[in-house]
Amino acid sequence: MPPFASVTDATFLGPVRTAPRYRFWSFRDEFPGLEAVDADGWSVPGELYAVSYVVLRDRLLPLEPPELELSVIELADGSGSLSMRVRANVLAGAVEIRHPDGWLGHLAARNGS
Predict the structure, then answer these.
(1) Are 103 and 29 in contact (CB under 8 A)?
(2) 97-112: per-residue pLDDT in tens?
(3) Closest Cα partner for 87 from 27, 46, 42, 29?
(4) Which domains does the chain have, with CATH numbers?
(5) pLDDT per position as a tens digit, 11-70
(6) Phi and psi at residue 39, in whole multiples of 5°?
């Protein structure tokens, strides 16, 4: 479950995919992170939410792990979105996710579901 799932002030807008210029990582199977790359990227599936800047600042960002930072990513349709991305030089021990269903598919596969 994403860390923002309990935030009642976020509105689910639907499923999205990133542009094919990211790699996707699992950190201890606790949270995922996107990494922008020049080669070997893929279109990572995800979810888009509308959230106010106040909620983002006061409720979401304080809960994010130190391995991630707020950034702008490119979506498959060419638009942009705020997203948490992997900070530089923090991939030690991370496992790359290539599951076609993204984070939730990765976790289900790891748990044998």
Answers:
(1) no
(2) 999 999 989 999 988 8
(3) 27
(4) 11-110 (3.10.490.10)
(5) 999 999 999 999 999 999 999 999 999 999 999 999 999 999 999 999 889 999 999 999
(6) -145, 160
Calpha distance 4→13 (Å, rounded): 14
In this prediction, residue 92 has a pLDDT band, given cuts at 50, 70 and 90, of very high
What is the full DSSP assignment across the chain? --TTTT-TT-EEEEEEEB-S-EEEEEETTTEEEEEE-SSS-B--EEEEEE--HHHIIIIIGGGS-TTEEEEEEEBTTS-EEEEEEEPTT--TT-EEE--TTHHHHHHHHHTT-
Phi, psi of 55 (to 5 degrees): -65, -45
Integer Cα distance of 35 and 12 in angstroms: 23
Tokens read off for 3: 């860390």
The candidate with the shortest Cα–Cα distance to 27, out of 106, 100, 82, is 106
